[in-house]
Please model this.
Amino acid sequence: MNTRMLLALTGALFLAGCGGSSTPPPPPPLPDVSTSDIVTFGTITRFGSVYANGVVYDCNGANVTMNDEVGQLADLRVGHVVAITATIRAREQVAKALTIGCLDEAEGPVSDLDLEDNSFVLLGRTVHFDELTVFENVGYDELANGNVVRVIGHERYQDRIQATHIERIANAWAVGMRMEVKGNISDLDPGLMRFRIGTQWCDYSNAMMELGSADLANGLYVEVKSTSPMLKGDLMLDQVRARDRDRDRDRDRQCADGCVYDLEGYVTEFVSPLDFVVDGAAVTTTTATIYVNGTVDTLANDIKVSITGDFNDEDVLVAERIVFHLPSVVQIEADLEAVDVDSATVTLLGIEVTTDDSTMFRDVSDAAVYEFWLDDLAVGDRIEIRAYLDGATVVATRLERDDAEDTVTLKAPVEAVDRPSLTMLGVSVTARDGTVFQAADKTVIDEEAFFDLVEVGTLVKAVGIDNGAGITADTLFIRECVNSCL
Model:
């Protein structure tokens, strides 16, 4: 089976989740083709019986591993980055998951927390978070230095980590708790028996070495672990283990002819469109490569992409399709006014929002539905949306159900200005006596200064009351999407 046919079938299958109790309409029939293999590496966006491009992902019986240990489907969370191997059985309309593996990037105490830059340092690795990062047991604005967290995410340019899931394990580290981090060795000093991972010095004098056929050397990709207190800032290692990125991401499972590899990640080394790296995988393009949300000229270091293709004889991923991820500049928090499962849309504040296979679905309300999707929603539910603009269409990247609140939130580019009002996504937002105004640098300004700064296209966040005809604003803040759109 050729790659192009599989591409039409798989789409973003790794996003689909597993199992499920809902019963959506039957998908359209698939072409009558033989079983073929696919490997996908990306972020889980929802659970439940999910149809993606006419294919339902069946995860029953899949071999699940969590950090190399035997796991189960219930261990997986929205926001986890996973490697999945699967087969497509077109006759049965099924994509059958065979293996699902999840690995964290680091676990330990937070340091150098910077809520302006939306980043912190974790055992020498700089971790970034954004509007799509899932926080478990903590809110992003509740995170504190010293909190022990487990981070799952993607590799970024300059050895940084983009967190897709951050779980707080404890408020503070205690003796016996695990600290571990993956990364490349630098500044190896055999005399002192130490090296660095990122900015973290590691002492391996008492560590168990599991290097296989590799030699301890600068550039070696390893996982290091410790349960001992730091000594003069050094991480006192119990174990040093050589790792293989290709094996971790199941890129070493070179399946049958026509195998498709779906890869989500950041460009970490860019030379040209014919020579760049995403998450350690060498990638190239051809004149037939399809680009979505950009062009070949959009490719650059630190750009987030989803790539579908297959590996050539030189183990280079030949991209058939590259999707560029757009920033989620839109934020809407309000009560649900309508939901249409067939068209996969929701409406709140009069704004119709489209969802797709890439939309993250989570239920953080008291109901806490694990296999949460559109068919679990009811009019009046409190919904929080993050979205990007595709022309005039609002496309959700994240949809969460939360508990009831009195205020509403709308962040979007300004469409029109008529002091003391402005319009965003067709919604009129009006300042009142007592409205608090803020510039992009988060300094408080007065109403006149605010409206002097606002023009069509300015990104503004409004929080206030839905008055039935629009929003009466308690706060109006100018915002910018640079490192994130939080």
Observations:
- The chain has a mean pLDDT of 89.
